[in-house]
TrEMBL record:
The CN hydrolase domain, residue ranges: 1-253
GO molecular function ontology, one term from the record: hydrolase activity
CDD domains given in the database record: nit (cd07572)
Highest taxon above the source species: Bacteria
Protein name, per record: Carbon-nitrogen hydrolase family protein
Pfam short name (any one): CN_hydrolase
UniProt-listed PROSITE patterns: CN_HYDROLASE, UPF0012
Alphabetized InterPro entries for the sequence: C-N_Hydrolase (IPR003010), C-N_Hydrolase_sf (IPR036526), Nit1/2_C-N_Hydrolase (IPR045254), UPF0012_CS (IPR001110)
Family: Belongs to the carbon-nitrogen hydrolase superfamily. NIT1/NIT2 family.
Keywords carried by this UniProt record: Hydrolase
Length: 271
């Protein structure tokens, strides 16, 4: 199954970001991708954390959701919409939600980011809990691929990557592929991004697809990028360092099964 991790350098303009996402999705479809995954905050990287509140949507409909549903339908793609802000019962809180659309344009799954990023090294300060409401539940979906296999896919977002228990839960649930749309800072990405992604792939004997924000944004933030695809043995199949682009890779079902047969670690779990 051919997959595409879409790397962006999103701006404070939702309209501009949707146009950029559409161009990358079109490119992915033209190159034969069956599944395309956008990065975290693909629709908005604003000047302030609270900018998310102004573009929040009710679950199910809104300009951002409608745009991605139309893209999925028109391009014949499975699309994972990175993340977008969905309304909650609190006016000053939104969820950071990863939504999935089928090639028919149907909304098939939702995952709300569980772990909220907090970082302060004296120069950079982030605290997502000021605006975001944390999710509570993991979420998987099944993708019947043109390769004849049904891929079970686990959803996660960015900072979740540091909590291996989430990915082990997906492995217990039979996941073959795990998605990690992200907006890692340059500082944390340079130190830990590839290391953590490869670890999640190896310990769960699963493919990992991680699209990212990658570049210098209008708000001055510098994201690490390095969108990549990792196989169950920890090998990086495709990667792009910085700037917008489509990172394509073939996920081979036989490779997945061979790795799990040669090293049956998942059957040796005691916890």
């Amino acid at each position: 199954m051919k997959v595409a991790a879409l790397q962006m350098v999103s701006s404070p303009s939702v309209d501009a970001n949707l146009q950029a996402a559409r161009a990358l999705l079109t490119q992915a479809a033209e190159q034969g991708a069956e599944l395309a995954v956008l990065p975290e905050y693909f629709c908005l990287l604003g000047q302030r954390d609270t900018d998310k509140l102004a573009v929040q949507e009710a679950p199910g409909h809104g300009p951002i959701q409608d745009h991605l549903a139309a893209c999925a339908r028109e391009l014949g793609l499975w699309i994972v919409g990175g993340t977008l802000p969905l309304s909650t019962a609190q006016a000053d809180r939104v969820t950071n939600s990863s939504l999935v659309w089928s090639p028919a344009g149907d909304w098939v799954s939702r995952y709300d980011k569980i772990h909220l990023f907090c970082f302060d090294n004296g120069r950079e300060r982030y605290d997502e809990s000021r605006v975001l409401e944390a999710g509570r539940q993991p979420a998987c979906f099944d993708l019947p691929s043109r390769d004849g296999h049904t891929w079970r896919i686990g959803l996660s977002v960015c900072y979740d990557l540091r909590f291996p228990e989430l990915y082990r839960a997906y492995a217990r649930d039979g996941a073959h592929l795990m998605l990690v749309p992200s907006a890692f800072t340059y500082t944390t990405g340079e130190a830990h991004w590839s290391l953590l992604l490869r670890a999640r792939a190896v310990e769960n004997l699963a493919f990992v697809v991680a699209p990212a924000q990658g570049g210098v944004h209008e708000n001055g933030r510098h994201t690490w990028g390095h969108s990549l695809v990792v196989d169950p043995w920890g090998e990086v199949l495709a990667e792009q360092a910085q700037g917008p682009g489509v990172v394509l890779a073939e996920l081979d079902w036989a490779t997945l099964q061979r790795c799990r047969a040669q090293l049956p670690a998942l059957s040796h779990r005691v916890l």
